Amino acid sequence: MRYWLRYYEKSRLDVREKNGYLREKVPLTFLAQRGNVQTAKPTTEGLIYLATEDNPAFLGEASLHDIAHQIAYSHGPSGSNKAYLLNLAQALRELGTVDAHVFAIEEQLQRYQ
User: Fold this and answer.
1) What share of the chain is helix, strand, coil (3-state, %, to 5)?
2) Residues 73, 35 contacting (CB under 8 angstroms)
3) What count of other Cβ atoms lies within 10 Å of the Cβ of residue 109?
4) Helices 100-109 and 64-72, interaxial angle, to 10°?
5) Rounded to 5 degrees, what are φ and ψ at 92?
């Protein structure tokens, strides 16, 4: 699965992630078959955003409860962080990807109606 970003899409990401995140370019390798490195396709450049400890919004080491609480009551330029996390969890399921940490936060967030 690849996503090609046009300039205006990258600009929107920069706005969404503007709260002290570092933007880094990294090499990405896509596997034709899950878990099979021998089926890797050529490497391409990817874009990630990193939160660092000097970011005032960085929570640091925290329990799932504390993470969910912060997400439940935080909003950014793209909307509620709760909606973002719930949509992320749904998208991961649709892609057949398991992320135990995201799903555990999602479970905690269900308590914040």
Assistant:
1) 40, 20, 40
2) no
3) 21
4) 60
5) -60, -45
Residue that has been written with the tokens 């999602």 in this structure: 106
Q: How far, in Å, CA of 85 to CA of 71, rounded? A: 8
Under the banding of pLDDT at 50, 70 and 90, the label for residue 93 is very high
Q: Which of the residues are catalytic?
A: 17
CA separation for the pair 81, 105 (Å, rounded): 12
* Residue 48 CA neighbour count, 13 Å, CB half: 8
Residues 6+ apart with CB under 8 A from 26: 45, 46, 47, 48
Please give the share of the chain, as a percent, with pLDDT higher than 90.
32
* Of 44, 42, 92, nearest in space to 104 by CA: 92
CA–CA separation, 56 and 8 (whole Å): 27
Residue 12: band (very low, low, confident or very high) from pLDDT cuts 50, 70, 90: low
